[in-house]
Amino acid sequence: MPLEQTNLMDHVIATAGGSVAAPDAADRDAPPPAPAPVPVRMPDHRSADPPTLLTAHGCWYPSANPTGEHVAFICDRSGVPQLWSGPARGDGAHVLDGDPDPVTEVSWSPDGRWIAYTSAPGGGEHTRVLVVRPDGTGRQVLAGAEPGSSAHLGCWTRDGTALAVTVAQPSASGSEHTGAGHLPADADGAPAAPGAKAPGAAWSERGGPATLLGAGTANRAPAPDPAAPAQAAAGRPVPDVGPVRSGGLAAYLVDPDGANAPVLLYGEEGAASLRVCDTSPDGRFALVRRGPRGRREALVLDTASGRTTFALHVADGDPWIGRFSADARTVWLRSDTDREFAALLKVRLDEEGAGRAVSVAVERDRSALDLLSVPDHGRWALLAWNVHGATELESVGLPLADEDGGVGPRHRPVLPHEVVTRIAPLERGGLFAALAGSRRRPGIWELDQGLVPARAGWSARDEDAVPPGRPPVRPVPLRCRARDGLTLGGWYYRAPGRDPGRPAPCVIHLHGGPEEQERPVFSPLYHELLGRGLDVFAPDVRGSSGWGRSFVDADLGDGRFAAIDDVADCAAHVVALGYADPVRLGVMGRSYGGYLTMASLVWHPDLFRAGVAVCGMSDFSTFFAGTEPWIAQSATAKYGHPEHDRELLRALSPMSRVDQLRAPVLAVHGEHDTNVPPTESEQFVRAARERGVPARQLTLRNEGHEFLRADNRRLYRRAAADWLERHLDPTPPP
User: Fold this and answer.
1) Quick one: average pLDDT of 346-357?
2) Whole-number Cα distances in Å, 677 to 515, 623, 628, 669, 680
3) How would DSSP label each residue in 74-100?
4) Can you list the positions of beta strands (E) in 606-714?
5) Residue 406: is its pLDDT beyond 80?
6) CB neighbours of 399 closer than 8 A, spacing ≥ 6?
7) Which of 233, 340, 489, 603 has CB 3.0 to 4.6 Å from 355, enough for a Cys bridge?
8) 503, 490, 696: which is closest to 585 by C-alpha?
9) Per-residue b/e over 117-130, b at no fewer than 16 CB within 10 Å?
């Protein structure tokens, strides 16, 4: 029998006296891990839409109102990603927040009264959570308004009366960080466990059959045991973080109407990530995602006591990892526990929220589940599968309450674009999907109950992706082998008009992460390079996602040296195919790709004629000392601990080999980047100049780790293309 829905905010206050962080008096007196957010009223946005609107624009991150008749979304039509709203059918979209701060996430409340969103003041990494009425009134900052603080969205309660937000503790000095990544000497980004190994020894320990790849190992993992998830759930002790004393991340329930004070749901000292993904309809449980990269966990939290009743490893990638069923007796999770590729898992819970059984509900051979979305009623799920970088969308029926059978009918629509980036299901059936493709701007499409797609009238038309005369290039997939036998993938873009039989100047472009994946979506940067006569090869070196957990783990520890060699092996492959000219190769990348760019230039100094390093780490020691505390916590699981693994990190740092640099390098950085501070680029450029190597730095104003403003993105693209064109000389010889 379905449980009566209650107000979660009232439930938590009534059962726990307004605090769920600590069960006894001593713990109730302990300070929270991050201060409760203080909502701040903002002026309503009443001005007209910006007078200059871009024809070639992108729309993404849709969230529909309860009736499905209107959609809130992010759009950069005015030159910066802002919060917009429009009818599901029609073209009358309008701006809801005209501030110049880029918007990154959107969520319409289940009762339809509020739209919540995350914005980044100044384009930096310190974000805040706001709400606004659908008519543009009542705008207020719910969390992240305090100087030095940061906040991001969690879920709405099922009745829409409260929003979960995660708040990061401001640094002690307000804006500066000190120490080796702000980490205790024994920290490794996860709570310590009895008998745990030192952080440096933990790299090879991942649940299930995933294995650490290296020289002499095959690119294959043992077949998953279907019974393994249930055994793990039954036999593994559930970690209970318990009371926390200071620092870290904290999740609060905030009432946008101001009738109730914020309520602490969960807090963790020294946390790497924390997000409330769902609350059960009866208000008893919350689904929380926590943990560092590669070691994410889903926790079921008893909201009355703060006790963790169930925990299970979940996949990296999209943070919205699951939902409760309507009766709160099942949790649907996107997880790669005990398997190479993420699948849809069904977790049965008992009355107390403990896991009774874990089973695989839907899986695909050698394809990972990228996105999972389940409507409140829980009768079906929408699944987006990653198939070698492209997306296959699927709708599956879910069993009703007290049913133990498998999933119901499965439907797979034909999509007009290659990649799905966000799914917004409708209670009445159908969905809104954010789609992206190699030859078109991101747009939002409605799929009706029959899953037939129709483009929203306010999304840019495909023919408006670029100015006339130079259409976008569709890439071709490439596979190649690294020197140790590991198979790598990627996409090759051929400059239009280039003689297919003549090797061309080629830029190896490296994505960030390193757990990101190169996907066939439209890239204005690639379009700019191709227009200058430069080919682009965008590979997935080891450490990338989309190819299984073993591939993601293959760069851990000293495996990162092999990842650097992968860049050279990819260059050698396109040369061997006759695509690329061996004496006109360039390399560039952003974030981790910026690090790999600098590393490739100093480890393979005679291979590349020029490089463009964007927001990259040049020295792990200074990176850990300067980045955000929660980023440092998560980075230890991927790169190593700044104390325990000091020598390895020094050896992996491009600054340790900068004497080998030969090729001219352009460094690009956002001035407000606190993920990878701009000093990482500055010290590399300074060292290059001291050694007589041509080097320049471009600092983009009002940008952080991501470049979100149209004028800055244009400046970056043109500067990078100018640099590479100058040094690679794409004009073929007579």
Assistant:
1) 95
2) 20, 7, 9, 8, 6
3) EE-TTSS-EEEEEESSSS--EEEE--S
4) 610-614, 665-670, 695-700
5) no
6) 405, 406, 407, 408
7) 233
8) 503
9) bbbbbbbbbbbbbb
